[in-house]
Amino acid sequence: MSTKKTLILNKQQIQQKSRRIAYQILEDNFEEKAVVLVGIADRGYIFAQRLQNILQEIAPEKEIELIKVNIEKSKRNLEASTDLPVEMAKDKAVIIVDDVLNSGRTLAYALGAFINVPLKKMRTAVLIDRSHHKFPIFSDFYGVKLSTILKEHVEVRLEEIDNEEDAAWLY
What sequence ranges are listed for the domain Phosphoribosyltransferase (predicted)? Predict the structure, then answer.
């Protein structure tokens, strides 16, 4: 890992990108009564909470539900658990939310948790899309698409869990 640290997004830019993503989600789901945001623990869930708050502010008439999904990344097979029953997403628009899309594995695992639930549609939202996809997963809504080399690492810092100002860094 490189010792050089490059700022990708500062706090204000993260807020702007989050608001833009929320408007895109709203536009894509204009006719839906309810939208379910599925945040991937931990940072994806925090990002999903922020999107939920923005969506409730700009579209108070919409029901914006939030599910937290925990993924066991160290296992070779899919192991995902949710804090609420996945059936609550039945026949609704679902958006899987994470902070960074790298290979697509984490998002694929999160999608797998809903494989037996009939959904109206499923989309993905990420703050940063690194474009190193190994899985056929892409970001429907993203803050920044970033071309990096495989050796580089992207880290998103969020105040709620990191106790420091929001920022996204490239190492």
Answer: 8-155
- The tally of domains found in the chain comes to 1
The reply to whether 55 falls in a domain is yes
Residue 39: how many other CB atoms lie within 10 Å? 27
* pLDDT (tens place) for every residue of the chain, 171 residues total: 457 899 999 999 999 999 999 999 999 999 999 999 999 999 999 999 999 999 999 999 999 999 999 998 777 777 788 999 999 999 999 999 999 999 888 999 999 899 999 999 999 999 999 977 788 899 999 999 998 888 899 999 999 999 999 999 999
Domain carrying residue 51: 12-147
- Domain CATH for 127: 3.40.50.2020
Q: What is the pTM of this model?
A: 0.93
* In a domain? residue 171: no
Q: Is residue 30 part of a domain?
A: yes
User: Pairing mode, if any, of strands 121-129 and 80-82?
Assistant: unpaired
Could you tell me the two tokens for 141?
């809504």
